[in-house]
Amino acid sequence: MRIGIDLGGTKTEGIVMDDSNRILIRARRPTPSHDYEDVLNTIQDLVLSLEQQVGARCRVGIGLPGALSARSGNLKNANTTCLNGKPVLADLENRLKRKIRMSNDANCFALSEAIDGAGLGYPVVFGVIMGTGVGGGIVFNGQVHQGPQWIAGEWGHNVLEADGPVCYCGKRGCVEALISGPGLVRNYQSAGGDPQIDAQAIAACAQTGDAIAEAVMQRFLDRFGRALAMVINILDPHAIVLGGGLSNITRLYGEGRARVAKYVFNDELLTPILPNKFGDSSGVRGAAQLWRADEN
Asked: What is the largest CA-CA distance in the chain?
């Protein structure tokens, strides 16, 4: 059996998965996002509690924000900033006395959807996270491709508009700064929209005749099209699966796909753009699936 841990900004979720990819047990803890040792304690306690409930020692896979540095082995690029520069993998392996597999949360999402989700049957799947941030993961024939620098799939930090807003990474006009949930809200507010509504409400308002919301959504869809077309031009995946809160915007699968087709370097767009199957569970499922069912 396999344990998957999904370390989020506010909650840490754990599951026990059997060899048929069924979730047997699920548990959650609040994430102590400002204290490194408390984060390690939370993960350790969750693993041991799940093992006690299932009555067996399990393989452990962990999905978390950021990536491991190829040079030092420490974590980098995490928006849970207390983890950055820390030997998270080594520390958890020492605590749990076993080999652990660890990957970016977007990679785990992509893996889950590729193995038995919306991307089932497609050899190359690009999994997209569009929510508070914008991330991505690449799966080749059921295996995550992380790359030698562990940054494969990080389309969210490609610069789309050089004069755009400043991203937390320090660059201007990143994809993440423009088509994340906060990016959509910021664009709506700067256009004179209601400062109290969120990204989902903006999309809903656009459908009911709000002219400001519709203009903002048109810019959002165009940016989505340009950003994703760049990925397709380089990777040419067999399928793209969308996840995160913004993946619930239905216009992405019709008008958004048409914008991608407009910018892709081909006379037609054959790539299916699909809604995810497992929703919020994809990340934690994929963390467990970093181990194959037939591995010891």
From this structure: 58
